Protein 1
Amino acid sequence: MKVDQVLCAAGPVDAVTNQALAYRRLFDGWGWEGTDYAEVIAPTMEGGLVKPLRSLAGDRGGGVLLVHYSGYTPAIGPLLGNGRPSLLISHNITPAKYMWDQEPFEGVRCSLAPDQLAELAQRADAVAGVSEFNAGELRVSAGRDDVSVIPVLFDRSRLGSPGGEVAAARGPRVLFVGRLAPHKRQDLVIRAFAGLRRLCPEARLTLVGVPISGAFEAGLRGLADELAPGAVTFESGIAPEALWDRYRSADVFLCLSEHEGFCIPLLEAFHFGVPVVARAAGAVGEVVGDAGVLLSPDDDLTTIAEVLRIVVSDPELVSELRLRGERRLAVYDHELTAARLREQLTILAG
Amino acid sequence: MKTPEEALAVARERALARRPEGELLPSPELPGIEADRQAANRRLARWALIEPDHAEVYSTRRLGAPITAFKRLLIRLLRQYFDQVTAQQSRFNAHSAAYMLALEERVRALEDERARTVEQPTDRDPQGESR
């Protein structure tokens, strides 16, 4: 069997690219052929892994076309609905309102994407979202009832072991992992952390993620210097092993995003046994389930700071959260998701 | 505490108790990094005049150096055409940017005027008749 994958853009630290590469490893294991293509390829992307999308035009090999949709890409349109079996997977489209001030170009792409996604979904043979949140949006916009959910392929074996030697730190450590972007609300994470610092002056915050722009990062750093001077660390582009160490040394994972299509770092936090405190927005509530302290949008920063204080000081609660996190990971079991994907693609291939 | 639900309930109670002490932290509705409108305008104006960087023209293929050299040679040979296209695009961009900046100034002027009107009640009697 042959499955070609198409990405809107490919980059080494891009979550969607990493998903496509994980799919490819899976396909290789099943003895399936195919090539991965992207409209835009970051210069830092390892050569040969993903080919330019234009080279797909000359491919007459047939097989299933799997499109990972994550942003407006005009060149994808002609690929669907031309007789080749296709599966469209919607990863996430960030609402444009978050992008206008920081990245207007990204904002334009985000504002054009929902209409294009709906149009593509009408032409694809099968459509899926990586979360029920994404799938639900697509059912409404494309008018299709048959949008399924194929969760993110989460391979725990590629992560480090949950335990391990990590230098002991003074005071509780708060962690958030995700691109520094307006919809991820790292500004609120810093403000909530500042609230925790009033209660636990030795607390530290680590924000890991590539900034959407230099100006946005500078703004966040300024806020951190003002509210919690010297207590906030920004890191980006760190090696996987270093990231696993950040999880191992964290006492709580705080996610206050206003929009998430899935949020893989939540599962990573579960894997490393880090208690999760998260705001129920986008797909976050569905991914966390009952395995974390799930904040409502009405909970203010005082409440969040209190939740953080309780979590970092209550071993009994931490044990319960770790237990629930482990149970939650079973829902996103690698084999289970792989089987779901295989079934969908096999049906399409006929 | 045994469950996250209990923890959240306790946190809410404690937060409620702290509010009269003036401990309530601001919870901004929108992203707390205030957009620097003037900086955004400057950026818009800067981007309007496009300046393609020929150093960005390269080949991503392995051993692509000869291809990169060929692409750059092509650009040099077609410079007159590229300059014309660039100028045409920049002209359009500049006009669009100028139009938007002018619109924003008009909106700001209208907002200022409205704010002044709200602050200073007009010299009218309760029946709405001008004196």
Protein 2
Amino acid sequence: MAQATDMGMNRTGIGMAPRLSEEMIRDAETSIPTSGGDGHQIERVRREYLHNSPPLGSTPPPATAKGAAKAGMHMLKGHRPSVFLDKLGERLAFERTGTRLYEALIAKFDEVGTWEQGPTRDQLIGFHNEELAHFELVREAIEYLGGDPTVVTPSADVSGVTSMGLLQVITDPRSSLAHSLQALLVAELADNDGWHMLIRLAEAFGQNDLSRRFHQALADEDRHLQSVRGWLSVEMEQDLKGGVQAQKPH
Amino acid sequence: MALDILSEKGVPLARQNFSWRDIVRVPFSKLDDDAFTRVRVILMNGIEAEAIRFSHACSRMNKDLRVPLAKIRRVDQHQQTMVNWLLPPDQSPLETTIGYEQVAVEVTASVAAHEPDPYLQQVYRFGLLEDFDHLYRYSALMDRIEGKDANNILQSYTDIVPGRPTSEEHRAPEDDLRNWYDRKKAQPISKLNALTIMAGEFQTHDYYMNVGPTFADPVARQLYAEIASIEEQHVTQYESIADPDETWMEKWLLHEATEVYNYYSCLQTESNPRIKEIWQRFCDYELGQLHFVMDLFKQVEKRDPAEILPNTLPEPIKYESHRDYVRQVLSKEMNLRAVGYRFIDGTKEKESDATLTYRKHLNSHGSPSDMVAAGYRWYTGTELGKQARAS
């Protein structure tokens, strides 16, 4: 099976078209820009829009004041519950999309196989189930704090935009399992930091039970991160030494 | 008070100017603005796109009209840009798609409910149930591929349930053509309705054709390919309900009136003040354009534009949930099928051989829309929520 690191006819560099690129470079060197200045003009436009743009959106107040009161969210002066709910919304969206990422990854695994010391199907399914459980954990936490788990908070929205590229890589049938794991690594790194942040917030709001449960989720995420790093590292070593021997899934 | 379009002259064409900063404004908020703000923005982009499309076709066939057409078309170009650039960049192509289908459902329902001609009403209801199904299929795609809830876009105004199954919507071309209204007998609202829905469907087709290949997932690429094909059928259907004997000038006049009518409709219900100001400005621009074309109509056709246009604008399009109306149509007309210009009860009468053969071949390697929504039932917060609670 052809691998992405096999030598081929990649045409994107100038080395594949020496005569044409030589002409092109000469033309560019002798051309005269029609407007003066440099790339800093872009900054001026960006700043103008930055000055005039409202935020992406808002975090709604807790859906049930009773729930918020029960959770003691109003007790802590100087702490805004909306910050906690915004970040919980982010984690919820990320874990839910993460679950779908693992589904796409498992489909790829089933078709193309793995490598020695690469991921196993059971591991991928296990991680998928943990992402799903984390999504449910965050949903419960939001409800417990009187929030609405169906809301897309501003941070959830941003994480959705950030994840688009990861989805594109993993769902592309032409990208390899290793490419997909590289995209997953980005997700797991962000996820790991996200759980650290949620633990800090839970502690700031005196939510010790939530903090304990978030620590457990973080332990899972640590394992995901280490595993993905390990699989990628082994794959690179094997590729370096003469190509990865694909192993068909059992 | 209803707008008297024959006496309100709006802003003269010479004063309809733009700068790039003026055109490229701050978009609406995907999170905080009402879903109908998005619906209005999407539809108005379609209305302007149709104005430009018509203008080009007219220009190719009418050498004496080329200069005035080009002048108005240039303004339409910048109006369309200003409107379409109101879509926020954090709204993904699939989220925008959900918005497009919400337009198709809610605007078509409003039009169908207010259309005076019973046959045209039926045409709209027929198309409505198909777009309604597209919304369900795309919602399943969004849930199952991206882990996102389409209702974050729909804001609970529009149901996510199956309509006439997309896999059964594929028909032979001759079964997508309909009877047309009679230009001498039809009420003006019928003409404005036809242009409005045709414009909406045309831009939907073009949008799917553009964004479909940007998806990496083969399931998404297949689904966009399938639904874009139905949108092409819908354009064929809605294009055919306009009288082909209308003169070029009549059609131009009606396009301008449709633009006025639609901006006026948007203006009635817009909740975002920044965007309401745009609807007001463009309503005034369109009145200016309409009067420019009215003068031209008098010169070219030696007729009074009042023969074609209504004195006052009809009742505006209702930008609100049509849940009950759609449910009624669903319960009564799910089994309707089309044979030639007729609608038939698919449980009692067979579709044409041409359609059955065409559909069988298209679906011969499986149906993307059936596959993506296999066993799918919308659930608040995505079907993973249900799965997580069950496990």
Protein 3
Amino acid sequence: MIGEGIQSTNQRRHSFVQDHVEVGFFTDPTVCIGCKACEVACKEWNQVPDDGFTWSGNSYDNTGHLGASTWRHVMFLEQDRQKGNQITGSMGLLDPQSTIRAPQSEDPFRWVFLSDVCKHCEEAGCLEACPTGSIVRTEVGSVLVQNDVCNGCGYCVVSCPFGVIDRRPSPLPDAGGAFKCTFCYDRQKSGLVPACAKVCPTESIVFGRLDDLRARGAERVQQLQQSGYNDAQLYDPTETSVRGIHAFFLILGEPEAYGLPPKPQVPTIYLKSAWTSAFATAVVSIIATLLAFAFFS
Amino acid sequence: MTTDSPSEKRLEELREQAWKDGVVAGRGVDVAGGPIPRKPGYYGQPVVKPPVWTWEIPIYFFVGGLGGMSAVIALAAAIFHYVDLARAAMWLAAIGVVLSPLLLILDLGRPHLFINMLRVFKPQSAMSMGAWILTGFGACVVPGLIALELHVLHTFTGAMDQFVRIAAGLFIFGSAFFGMLLATYTGVLIGATAIPAWFLHRALLPIHFGIAGLGSAAAFLELLGHRIAPLNAIGFFTAAVESVVLVWLTVDKHGAADRAIHEHSSGWLIRIGEIFSGPLALILRFFGLVPFAAISFLIGALVSRFGWIAAGKVSGSDPESVFAAQRL
């Protein structure tokens, strides 16, 4: 936490991998200043190639979305919603006859920055779908793609309910494989904090034990609601088949505005009905074929 | 200046209101590139990722379905002593066994690591199951075809021929078992994903893919000259089922959530495909135009496979469809 200096969980060394402790990220947009240091640190440490220098025209966000070569993405939302205790009212004249404006009134408006990342789901769609066993769960509960095993079948891409993982196109280095946030597993093994959390200047990204972070998130929501952020809530889909995420977020307003699915589901829940239909079709096909030969011979 | 567009009209209204009342109430006009985005979700960015698969996959669905169900026909033909038909069907299955892995490997991001597909056995991954089904199919079709040919060509006599005959029977049975799974699992493969247009139709997809596979196999064998009543009956049955699938898709709409299969070019591909392999094939067959019915069915089966993959791309890129599917 800010003020803890080098004692902050974002700064001190730890042994979570050795101790098999479940860890997470708690990302809080209300203290994010949109500096994108996390994006830069991630690219630098993990040697992630550039994903094109394009101007999106969407506010100040030219990163766009998470992908094979974008593992942190700072969103930049501009909303006509009230921010905290902002005093809002009509920007019009106080009295149609008068020319004096009300000085304390303004249109509701706010900027929200949120650093998006792989959610490291409790039930991960990509991990379940991977046919090579390339995607594994680590000792700290994160989801990791083993680059040397991945053959680039692309099934994880359509199995992620959050649209995080993607196949890296040619001619980028290591093209053809599926990539996403590694939760800096290599750093964590050496007792280091993930690069994004390490550099975050406002501790908008907090790294630490998942239990601690969940408690901290709940406390922060309460604090914000008391200071006028009525639409502050945690985004952690524990009620759906995803059963919670290791990298969870505090959001203002609805998840849809952040491109986050309101009720994400892990696609394995669809297997039962699909396989039932497949087996039924297979049996019907063979019976129909045998009947055709039996009756029309 | 044009006054036709709604935003220009709204601007006019606002000016009038400002002139009359001195204040403007209500929302103004969204200027393109203006500060408050009005696109769905986050600047209209996709919420899930659209499939990265290219033309190889729909062709594989077609070839795998045709090859897989050919083995089913081969089994029935062997049981009912249509030896020539059994041979032709096993050859089709064998061609499917050769082409299917080639197409799949071609689509991989790293083709040289294709063998990693057999690194694990993972029931919860339809892709892993598919790799094993295809392996099992290949392991049955190749020896099955060899044994069948050895038997038919009277290479051996006596006990050895008897052995070859039994081996052919067992391997053809195995081919039919894996073949019918090969033709239907592809529906599970795309049905159990995060793509709304696909998972909303996860019960229909295996039926559609499996029956299209069976019909394609029968149609292809008919085009090879096996104009016999059982294949014609299968042709009637599969075209009838595909017609039902067309009706099902027309009735079973989920609004914005699955609009990719009703609108856009993807919707048209699916519909045209279903018309060709459904009602059109049925009518042609009814009037005895068997070769035309067979060609119509094959075209439909191929086109609709392309349609389903295209629908996945449209649906996955459409944030509103993901939100709508979760609000259902």
Protein 4
Amino acid sequence: MKPSRILLLLIPFLIVATALSWAGPAQQGGVLVVGHHLDPTTLDPFGTTTAAFQSVFAQIVEQLVVFDAERAVVRPWLATSWRWLDPTTFEMQLRRGVSFSNGEPFDAEAARYSLELLFRAAPYSAWTRDLVRSVETAGPHTVRIRLVRPSAFLLPLLARGSFVVPPRHHQEVGAARFAQQPIGTGPFVLSEWSKGARIVLDRNPRYWGGQHPLRQVIFRVIPDDSARVVALQAGEIDVALNAPITHFNRLKIDRNLKVIAAPGLRKFTSFFNTRLDTPIRDRRVRIAMNLAVDGQSIVRRVFGGQAQVLPGHWLLPQEFGYNPDLKPFPFDPARARQLLAEAGFPNGFETQLTYTVGRYPLDKELGEIVAGYLEAIGVRVRQRPVEYGEFLRLRSAGQLGPIHQWGLLVPPDAHFSYSLFTKGSIYRFHDYPDEWDRLIEQAASELDSRRREAIYRRLAVLSHEDPFGIYLIAPGNLYAMRATVQGLTPRFDEVLWLYDVAK
Amino acid sequence: MVRLLLSRPERRAALTVCLLVLALAVVWLPPSASAIRPDLSMRFTPPAWVSGGSWSTPLGTDFLGRDIWGRLLYATRYTILISTAATLLAAASGTVAGLMAGAQGGMADALLMRAVDAVLAFPTILLVLSLVAVLGQSLSSLVGVLALSGWAAYARVVRSAALSLRASEFVEAARALGATPGRIIFRHMLPNVLPSVTVLSTFQVARFMLLESSMSFLGLGVVPPAVTWGGMVGEARNYLQDAWWAVAAPGTAIAVTTLAFNILGDGLRDLLDPRLVSLSQHRANL
């Protein structure tokens, strides 16, 4: 067949295709391509707490309540209001007229079913253990949670993980299939997922909040930081998640791009293991190490100002339980040397620093920097940079050594931070006097937020005077995007929120 | 012989570079503090000849404010030690294996050569990466893994040489006089395969240097504060657009040194190849 014949044959198809593209409202709106740094291993809302994975399914599956974009304040979403009936009974009123994208109605039964999944979910088990007695429906749009004991952190927990799934469908396909093909009430539905390459979300035409201005969202997996930025500059993607902070200044001057920085809550810390018989057991040595590291300088020079120094304890100003009376440890190497001498180590000592490589932006650099600062006060540091899998293996084998350094991201309520360091937790490497555990327990069942905050401030003072780590920094989150992308606001919990985005 | 090697200017230059680099590796100069210890206030100081640079850091500083010139010298030691140690190890084991296979023949030959096939059939970088991932990151495992990826080439070359040597008259004579197989292999065959092994080694040093560079670049090299040229390139590449000098300096070092070793290898081959030698002698006689 001649080429011209083929072209002639193609013409009717082209006409039909053009006609179709104008046919319905389903075809209007832009396509947003998001460059993602990680390929999700699962899209099961109850199978992961990784913010990077939630960033994908949060557009498909919605929550009962959500965090505000900027701080740890809980806002209504599929639940419109809530109240405590008594110290152990929590009641939520649900939004009416909402249905899942597969047609199932969203009602009290769907909320109850989903909440039970949440309270049984393994990733949340550290926070839900011995917490919930039962979940019940109390009317078609009312759901009640009965607790074992009063709990102040139920609401933040819900804001973190109260995803709602269609009960009938979920039961039919099972959790494993659902993790591949999640269905929710959100503005988008999953239409294609090629592992390691891309995830395509189509607009949900029946979304209760009205049709989304975007027709389609495509997540492209580009793990390499530089490659992701180059793809953005070349116009292949519209948004680059986790843009490397090292590129901040360069991206800022590109007129076709917009760079938004938001404070992040991943807290980089060099955790001390005081159970090992090393000089680190001495409180003065641990304070000296905090004085030896110049956090301000790291923030200013390495992170281009896009990070915050941990304020001398483990809670950031965006979190509930932050103690504004405490300040970051000053950079004072002379005082640090003096403290080392007082502790009996005028010539320093040798120790080991284990840190992750390639897991978080600049984690290797941070390891080398901290080692350098410690060397400067006379502590000889054997560096052990390890890949994340090896890091986890060392942790479960109890071989992280005297100091290990990485970044932890927990829900922004002091309870979630401090409960990492309670007795029996795998994150605890430094033992405090009994007061510590007692205060954490007391705060957990304190419903008056003023009094609860006072307890957390006391815990902050304890962890300042007797540091469990070198409190380093919390890097900001960078979102780099084409200048045409509108309405994308970075969230402090690092979850991508495309609900208000247009292009 | 040496005069022949030095007959061309590029070979003289190559020999100078190789000797210089080897000397730097062997002479144990302690690294300067500014080469190892981060100093964030000095971050990204450009080289001295660029505006903003200073002669206290002639090649500029890297992303942690460390002196690149000092680091380059410090890295020479690790880069060269790793590649030469790996080459020696690979040469020794590969030569022994090749002699065994070539001199004995039969079952030993078949087994060894299938092992060689297996190693050669495997993509080198993949083999090396997976071995390091399993064995863990350390200087000795790095050397061992590189050697493991390089012995097969020696075994092949030496075996073919040994096969032809086995049929040669002086080996037959030795055998007739009742020499043991061990004596024949090490006393009579080994000296005759050494020239090829030497030539191959100069190429292997360069190859290992590049391989080590790629591994360091991927973050599987030596552990800080130790550093190699490849590691320097790897850690600086994220800042390429801000600080080209942090990549350029170690990159140039890698390029120049591997080139020098390759030129040297070429020269040695010309020198030790009997046919070429006789040709040049013939020319000299004219």
